[in-house]
Amino acid sequence: MPRPIEALIHTDALAHNLVRARRMAPDAKVWAVVKADAYGHRIAHAFEGLRGADGFALLDIAEAEQLRRLGWRGPILLLEGCFDARDLEACSRLNLWHVVHHEAQIDWLALHKTTWPHHVFLKMNTGLNRLGFTPAAFRSAWLRLSGLTQVDEISLMTHFAEADGPRGVDHQVAAFEAATHDLPGERSLCNSAATLRESPARPNVRGDWVRPGIMLYGASPDHPEHGIAHWDLQPTMTLRTRLIATQDLKPGDAVGYGGAFVADTPMRIGVAACGYADGYPRSAPAGTPVLVDGRRTRLAGRVSMDMVTVDLTGLPDVGPGSEVTLWGRGPGGVVLPIDEVAHPAGTVGYELMCAVAPRVPVSAVP
Ligand SMILES: *Cc1c(COP(=O)(O)O)cnc(C)c1O
């Protein structure tokens, strides 16, 4: 028998979360962001749940090619655009829309031979300071692009730095609007946090296309301020395994490497077949929540390469073979949001779902 660990992708939950994005952005089109192999869910599984999107946004041409092979004929957007001139051939062949965020990408386009003019998304840097033309340089980039026969449509986009935090998006929206108010073209500004927090009440922020990622995968962009229950999102990935051993401890007995966890009363510990080599974060401290047979308990002791140890106090009827849910949906419909594991581990749901290791089999369930 293989090690009992596996990841399940809930395609019904992906579809539900997509509907939530649509509700929050009425009249806008939705780019389902599926970069990083759909945030670790695998493009093919994500496509099953997200095929109702208006388009798919990602980074890798290989992933775009996979979507085309799966039968997707609608829009695909390369969020970082082309990495060299040859990528434009793939854009022409696969009919990919692409972001233009620096001058060299315009140079490549100007030399590109294509019978199909391209749809590009011209990106403005409004304060995140990663990709994009400054507001001052934006207009001349737009004018250059609009003079190219290789380009037939220019949409305008920017990306928020703190849509989930106290500073919000207003300063970035103001910079974007000041530099684009007299330019034609569709607009796209919102990631998940802005789709949930800004788009419902502010049509100018909502624009023509929203670009949700993390919310589609059932994690909250502004945890711990709001959890997935607040936003009515459902977990789309379950990481689960089984108990493979138990240990009875006396007061003073220590658990795991470094003996960091010491029993202060007699207690029973369960050993689950999941460790940091499976992608479970080693930084998750004792106390991090976990489900055993659908009941909530906690880690006890350090995460090791292939195992975690869990507190079985109050769970007398569980033992080797019992199901352990590291995050996602447990037996009986009990939910353990990935955010509640990421937060004590000092990280975010994004990182955990992307980090599930290749040795963990991933399968889709309807
Ligand atoms: C990743 C990404 C998104 C999605 O962000 P979430 O926080 O996951 O919703 C949107 N736009 C761009 C440009 C991105 O790179």
From TrEMBL:
Keyword Isomerase (UniProt): yes
An example Gene Ontology molecular-function term: pyridoxal phosphate binding
InterPro entries named among the record's database cross-references: Ala_racemase, Ala_racemase/Decarboxylase_C, Ala_racemase_C, Ala_racemase_N, PLP-binding_barrel
Residue positions, PTM N6-(pyridoxal phosphate)lysine: 35
Active site: 35 (proton acceptor), 257 (proton acceptor)
Cofactor(s) needed: pyridoxal 5'-phosphate
Residue positions binding substrate: 130, 305
Name listed for the protein in its UniProt record: Alanine racemase
Organism the protein comes from: Piscinibacter gummiphilus
